[in-house]
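Inputs:
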Amino acid sequence: MTETQAPPQEALPAERKRFTFSADPRLLGLVGVLVILCLVGQITRPELFFTESNISTILRLAAAIGVVSVGMTFVIISGGIDLSVGSMVGLAGVWLTTLATQSYGPWVMVLCGLAVGLGCGLVNGVLVAYGKVVPFIATLAMYVSARGLAERISGRRTQVVADQDFLAFFRGGFLGIPTLIWLFALVFAVGWVVLNRTTFGRRTYAVGGNAEASRLAGINVKRHLALVYGVAGLCCGIAALMVVARTTAGASTNGMFYELDAIAAVVIGGTLLTGGRGSLIGTLVGVLIFTVLSNIFTLNNLDTDIQNIAKGVIIVLAVLLQFRARKARTGSQ
Amino acid sequence: MSLLSVRGIVKTFPGVRALDGVDLDVEPGEVHCLLGQNGAGKSTLIKVLSGAHRPDAGELTWNGERVELGSPVDALRLGIATMYQELDLVPGLSVADNIFLGHERARFGFTRISQARDEAARLMARLGHPGIRPSTEVGKLSAAGQQLVSMARALAHDARLLVMDEPTAALAGEEVDNLFRIVGELTADGVAVVYISHRLEELRRIGHRVTVLKDGRTVGTGLDAAATPTADLVALMAGRKVETVFGPRHDGHARPETALAVEHLSRNGEFENVSFTVHAGEVVGIAGLVGSGRSELLETIFGARKADRGTVAVQGKPLGPGVRAAVKAGIGLAPEERKSQGLLLDLPVVHNVTLASLGRYAKLGFTERAKELDDAGASLRRLDLRPADPRRIVRTLSGGNQQKAVLARWLVRGCRVLLLDEPTRGVDVGARAELYRLIDELAATGVAIVLVSSEIPEVLGLSDRVLVLREGRVLADRPSSGLTEAEVLDVILEGSAA
C-alpha cells in the first residue's frame, strides 16, 4: 500500500571522516581563496610577504579580531547576533587602563578586563534570554551604551599603560612566537574543544537549530543562551587585553567596527545566520582571509577604500557559494 | 496503585479550552491507548504529561505522590519520556547527538563521542535499523528515519512511562512490527506506555486499555482495548448531534458546468492519484486526519507545490505550473495557517484584501488608495466583517474576522474556485455559524469550493460531496446527503471504503 520510502541515507558514500572539516568541500573552497590571496601577496611583494616578520604581523593583527570572532561564532550558532562586541572591547580596554586599576598591578588589570567583558556579555544574555529582547536590539543597546560608558570613564583621552610587567608579558613572546599569537591559538583551541567536544557546545548547536526541541529534551534554553552571550563577552575581554597590549594604551575608540569584521568572518566561514550550523575552523579561515587581504593592500601601499570594496565582494561571493553548496547538499527544494 | 494518575486537568489557551477536565490512570506494564478526533486534546494532554505545558487546574499523581511538572526536565527525571510527532529533533545535529540531546554521554562536560555513537548504534539496531549511522545528520534522513531516531531517543531515557504520539504515522509494515515488538519488551519489563494512534487495528493489536477524549474531556476510560466494539469507540469519539450545529441540508447550488477538474494528481510521499471534479456552485468537502495529505493536496492544486504527476484544469483549461498561473485562472486559497501563510497581520485590512489584485489598484506603480478603500469596504460589508473599517489593523481582529479578510481578498480578485483549508480553526462558535452561511452564499453565486476540515460534522454540513482521504488516497467519494459522521470516521480509521 502506501510505501513509506525506504530511508535513502543508507547508501552513503563509504566511511565518513571523523573530523568534519576534512570532508566539507566548501571549507576547502575557502582555504583555496586564502591560498590564492597568499599567492597574490607573494607575487606582488616577493621580498616582503613570506617573511617571518610579516607573517607574525598578520597573525598579531588577526589575534584580537580572531578572538572576538570565536565568541561571535558561538552566538551566531545559537541563533543570535552580537552587535556590541566592538564596544565591549573598547569599554574593557578603558576600564583596565584607568589609573585606579593600573595602581593594583597587572593581575588586577587582566582580571578587570575579563570581568568587564564577561559582565557586559551576561547583561546581553540575560536581556535576550530572560527579558525576551530580540538579540539585535539588546546588543544594539549595549553597542551604544558600552561605547558611551567607555568615553565617560576615559574622558575620551588615551590612557597609556604604565605597568611594565603587563607590557612585557603581552608584548613579549615564548619560543620565538609573540604572546598575542599564543593567546589567539589558545582561545581558538579552547573554543573548538568547547564547541565540538562538550555538552555546552552540543547544546549551543541544538538551541540554534531548534529551540523548542531543545526545551522538550530537557535543556535549560534560557540559561544556555545567557551563557552563550557571556562567552562572547569574555572573548571581548580577552581581545581588549590584546588591543591594549598592541597599542600600549586603552582608548574608548578601541575595537571600533569589530562587530562588522567579526560577523563578516563568521559568515564567510560558513556559519548560518539562522543558527544551528557552523564551524570555528571556517571562522578562523574567514579571519585570516580578511587579515591577509588588508596586509596585501598595506604592503602594496594601496588605499583602504579599494580594500573595503574587495572585502565587500569577498563577503558576497562567499555567501553565494555557501548558498549553492547547501542547495547541492540538501537536494532541490 | 497506578503508576500515573491524572485528575481533572484543565488547560486553556487564548480563545480555546484545550483540556477541560481530563482523567487518566496508567498502570505499570500496560499499553494505554488514547483515542479521540483531531482537536480532542490528545496532543495538549501529552504536553502536560511531558512537562512542556503547565496545566491550569487538576492534579498529577506519580506512584501515589502528588507531583508538579514544571518543565520537561521534571518529567524526564521522574521517568516520563515522550516521543512527539514532530518538533523534537534538531535537523543539523547527528543521529547520536539527537538521541542523547539533553542527557549527553559526557564526563566533566566533555562529550564522549564514541560511547554515544556505540550506544546510538545499538539502539538503532534494536529498532531493526542498523543501517542508520549514528554520525548521519538527522536532517538528511527520511521521515521514517527521523521517526526512528525520535523513538531511539525515548528509549535512551530508560523511562518508566513512555508516551508515544502516533509513532507509526511514518512507518511501513515491517517497521511497525519492530516497534510493536519493542513495546512488548518494554511492557514485559513493567514500563507503561501511553499510545496514541488513529489506527484502530493497532489498538487492537497492542493495547490493553483505552481512554477516549472528546472536546478536551475524558468521555470513556479503562475500556478493554480488545473487546470494546468499534461502534462504541466511534460513538464516543463522535458523540455530538450534527443537527445542533447545522440546519437540515438544503439543496445544493451546483451548476452543470465544471469549474475545477483534478486528474491523477500525485506527489510522492504525500498523496497518490487523486481525481475529482468540482462544479460551479458546488462545495466539495475533504475529510481526513492531519497528515493524510489534505493540505498538501490543496497547496498542489494552488501551484504552491509541484505535482509529480497529474493535471489540474480550471473551466476546461489546463493550469500551468506555479501560484501565479493558478491565481490568474481564478483559484484562491485560504491556507490552514492563516496567520503565518495568509495574512499580513500588522497591516490594515485593506492592504490585505487588495494584495492579490494590486495591479488593478495601481497606475504607473502608484496605488490608488481611494479606490482600494472603496472596494475593500464593499467586500467587508458583503462578508459582514466587523468592524467594517478597512483601515483597521488585521491583528486586532478576531479569528473569524481575520478569516473573512482572507476570503475578501479572493472575492475582490473575483475567484471562481476557492480552496479553504480549515477555515474555522481558531474561530469561536458564533463566528463559525456566520462563516458557514458565507460559504453557502458564495457557492450560491457560482463559486466552486473545496473545503478541508478536521471536523467531520463541518464537512458533512457544508458540502454537497465528500471525499475521504487516508494516507494520501481517496477512499470514498460520495454525496454528503446519505453519510453520517460515524460512517466517515469508520473509513478514516479502518481504511475500508464503506
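Chain B touches chain A through 49 residues (CB under 8 Å). Flag for discussion at group meeting.
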